[in-house]
Fold this protein.
Amino acid sequence: MTELDGFERLAPALRAIATTRTDFAPASIQLMREPFNERRRIAAEQTPAQGVQIVENNVATESGEVPVRIYRGGKSPAPAVVYCHAGGFALGNLDTDHRQCVELARRGRCTVVSVDYRLAPEHPYPAALDDAFTAWSLVRSLRPDRPLFVAGDSAGGGLCLSLLLRLRDLGLSMPRGSVLLSPWTDLTISGKSIDALMCASSAINSSRIFLI
């Protein structure tokens, strides 16, 4: 299936969106961030959070501090989830997946620690992974006997997989499980599914994306 074949199968309105995606070039990222963050901020403010206690804090690192948002949806001691948001490693903040974190905490009766990891291109790899690892390590140290999980969406899902590999390679305690929502696992954009599934998922296109 060619790219054109995939787009031709979409309704005209969806085809217009699919064929005008914005490249993740550094200049484009700067233009996208403010409106992206504003939309997510408004959506976060409108998200019902009854039954979930939400607080913000900072985790100290060697290079500064990593902001985190903590969602408590269950009685202590509750299972904990370290969550990494979506955004292509270049967009997003604690508001990006706010609704997902609220629902996860409420329905799972757990504590969710959402990590505002550093973004590319200003902070290249492994900055985001270092931040996720720092947040994980702190939660683990504070609650060594609590069931601990990782979760993430898109780039955040891929970041969770990288975190799992680092924990494994360092011989550290692994989480009880992981919840990965459409994780971005192939940053080379070379897998056959990129083209084969183009009509089903057109967010990433090997001819339009710039790795950063």
Remarks:
- Residues 3-196 form a domain with the Rossmann fold fold (CATH 3.40.50.1820).
- Helices lie at 3-8, 12-18, 26-45, 98-108, 127-142, 155-169, 193-196.
- Strands lie at 53-61, 64-72, 80-84, 111-115, 148-153, 177-181.
